Amino acid sequence: MISSTISSNRRWRRIFLVLGAVVAAYAVLAPLTSLDFAQSANVPLLADRLWFRLATYIAMFIVMATAWNIIGGITGYAAFGNVAFFGIGAYTTGMLIAKAKWPFLVALPLAPVVSAAFAALVGLPLLRLRGHYFAVASLGVGVAVGELVQNIDYGGQPVFGGASGLFLPILSINNRGLFFFYLMVAAAAIAIAVTWWVLRSRFGYGLIAIRENEEAAAVIGVNTTAYKVAAYALAAALTGLAGGIFSQWNVFINQDNAFPIEYNVQMILMALLGGTGTVFGPAAGAVLLQLLIQFLGGSLPITLNLPFVSDTARPILAQVILGLLLILVVIFVPRGVIDFFGGRTRLSLSYLRRSLRETSL
Amino acid sequence: MADFVQLVILGLLAGGVYVAVGVGFGLVWGVLNIVNLAHGALVIVGGYITWQLFSAFHLDPFLTLPVDAVALFVIGYALQRGVINRIIRAPLLFTFLLTFGVNLVIINILLLIFGSDFRSVTPHYSGQGLELGSVVVPYVRLASLAAAILLAAGLAFVLNRTRIGLAIHAISSDRDAAQLVGIDLRHAYAVTYGLGAACAGVAGGLIALIQAITPTAGEPYTLQAFVVVILGGLGRVSATVVGGLAFGLVEVFGQSIPGSGSVFANAIAFGLMVVVLVTRPQGLMGRLR
Question: What value of ipTM does the predicted structure carry?
Answer without folding.
Answer: 0.84
